[in-house]
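Need a sequence for this fold. Nothing fancy.
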């Protein structure tokens, strides 16, 4: 018999299973990404009231079962409801953050840094609008916490700082940036120096501070670059991007 464990968590995905159960994937603070089955969750208002909706922030109580792929959900306490993202734009952005976090984590691998980033990102989003700089900051910090931090400040080969570079080149296959002398001519595209330095400035900032920044004229190019960096590590394009495109708020 295994004991009940609990953790703070964000609900990433949930689907009905059979007539009365639900299968739910959480990003937990303490155990990484976990999928569990909530017996009777389609009916039990007492144990699971609204707490299994995607984007809910919860404290989940579960039994990890060494012989089964699914954890057993004992109960789930709702801390912040998903209704915070009822607005369609907020829903699209919050879904985007959750979907990226889902794709950059592996089941049952501890990922407390990714949990903290997602929980923080949702809290920031709850308290105000998404900006381009907020989204780029989230993307870059998620890549870093997932183990794929891009080097945006210096040439990957000669280490010359881009702040003084004449031009910066991106290798879309490797996801790396080089100066003009070190670039691989076959596989590199020029990107604006300001694009790279503006993104580098977001890497160490809290997400709330990222939001207050403006990417100004480089916003679209910056979004393209982080999109390409992410694409190297995603198994499929985030579905939420379509929602975001439909909303197209502020040219993000
Ligand atoms: Zn170089």
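Here you go.
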């Amino acid at each position: 018999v295994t004991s009940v464990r609990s953790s703070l968590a964000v609900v990433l995905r949930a689907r009905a299973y059979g007539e009365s159960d639900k299968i739910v994937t959480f990003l937990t603070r303490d155990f990484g990404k976990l999928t569990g089955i909530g017996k009777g969750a389609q009916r039990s208002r007492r144990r699971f009231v609204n707490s299994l909706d995607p984007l809910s922030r919860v404290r989940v109580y579960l039994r990890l079962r060494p012989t089964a792929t699914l954890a057993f959900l004992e109960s789930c306490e709702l801390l912040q409801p998903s209704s915070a993202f009822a607005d369609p734009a907020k829903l699209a952005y919050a879904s985007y953050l959750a979907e990226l976090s889902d794709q950059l984590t592996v089941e049952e691998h501890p990922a407390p840094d990714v949990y903290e980033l997602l929980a923080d990102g949702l809290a920031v989003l709850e308290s105000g609008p998404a900006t381009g700089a907020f989204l780029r900051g989230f993307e870059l910090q998620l890549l870093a916490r997932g183990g794929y931090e891009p080097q945006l400040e210096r040439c990957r080969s000669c280490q010359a700082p881009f702040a003084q570079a004449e031009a910066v080149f991106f290798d879309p296959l490797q996801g790396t940036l080089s100066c003009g002398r070190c670039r691989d001519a076959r596989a590199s595209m020029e990107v604006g120096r300001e694009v790279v330095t503006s993104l580098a400035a977001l890497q160490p900032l809290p997400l709330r501070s990222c939001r207050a920044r403006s990417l100004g004229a480089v916003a679209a190019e910056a979004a393209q670059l982080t999109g390409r960096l992410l694409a190297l590590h995603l198994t499929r394009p985030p579905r939420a991007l379509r929602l975001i495109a439909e909303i197209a708020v502020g040219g993000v």
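For context: The beta strands are 4-17, 21-28, 32-38, 57-63, 71-80, 168-171, 176-179, 189-191.
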